[in-house]
Amino acid sequence: MQSISLCMIVKNEEEVLELCLSSIKEVCDEIVIVDTGSTDKTKEIAAKFTDRIIDFKWIDDFSAARNFAFSHATKDFIMWLDADDSLDEMDLIKLKDLKNMLDMSVDAVSMIYHYGFDESGNPNFSFRRNRLVKRSNQFKWFGPVHEYLEVSGNIIQSDIAVMHNRAMKQHLPSKRNITIYENRLKKREVFTPRDLYYYANELKDHQKYRKAIRYYDKFLATKKGWVEDEIRACINKSDCYQSLGESENVMVSLLQSLKYDSPRAEFCCKMGDYFMEKKEYEAAIFWYDCAINNKKTDTGGFQNPDYWTWYPHLQLCVCYWRLQDLEKSCEHNEKAGEYRPDHPSVLANRKLFE
């Protein structure tokens, strides 16, 4: 059996850290906590689980902090989590089983990251991240913000899932990331394609839609991005145009994503939304049906099952209602309810049909 060091960077995480460490401690042979300037009880909570608590002066560089944490690991493999992540009981068992079968031929293990959840607690936004790496390979983190761990070699794609406990901290909006990017621009730093993409995302999240569109275009113009990010950039551009009320540019941006791959379920739903907003219900129905029949593929990019499960059915319910086909409208509402029985729209529609 190989040994595992858990390496984390933290700052003011007293609300979530205990849940995180409690969920993972059984599988760790060592826990390294790097604190970047906490002023709450974070260190006190961490001390319940480890005496390896090390200070690191924050320099607006996440990869520097993570590489510092990795440098203090002493075990065969290194695993990383954020303080607002955790594993449930079944995934902890899977991780224990993985630990038992690990050998030194494995260079890295990717795990599913459940980042968003519906009202019933089911994952509705997931993607993969490299979570466990062989220490002797000295893999490094890159990027001051939205950093990534660069790995190579024999990589296992595991079905272990890490949960992001986003709801516990959503009341703490932060301008941290966008400020880091803007400070870098002031210093005239050259942005990588990845920087351009994630800066555009930050601009979009802060409702700076025009500027976000410019940076998505700069990113796409490099032709050096990951294809999943290129597709997402086109879709995010369409969302920006939607917020600006420019419907024709919404369509242009959606169609631009077809340069990179065949239509995904999300693309089909957004096309359906476009036509439904224009009250062209037959065209909308075509695209929602395409979404339902679109096969899920694990590309490693963002996965939102809403777009091939309940959402197109709920929209079809509306379309058929507008076309006065009440039987099909009710049928699709019930199909949406099979996935999301407690969704407010599903429940409201049932009352309407009654």
TrEMBL record:
Residues 5-141 form the Glycosyltransferase 2-like domain. The keyword tRNA-binding does not apply. It is an enzyme of class 2 (transferase). Keywords: Glycosyltransferase, Transferase. Pfam families: Glycos_transf_2. GO terms for molecular function: glycosyltransferase activity. InterPro entries: Glyco_trans_2-like, Nucleotide-diphossugar_trans, TPR-like_helical_dom_sf. Its EC number is 2.4.-.-. This is Glycosyltransferase. The lineage of its organism: Bacteria, Bacillati, Bacillota, Bacilli, Bacillales.
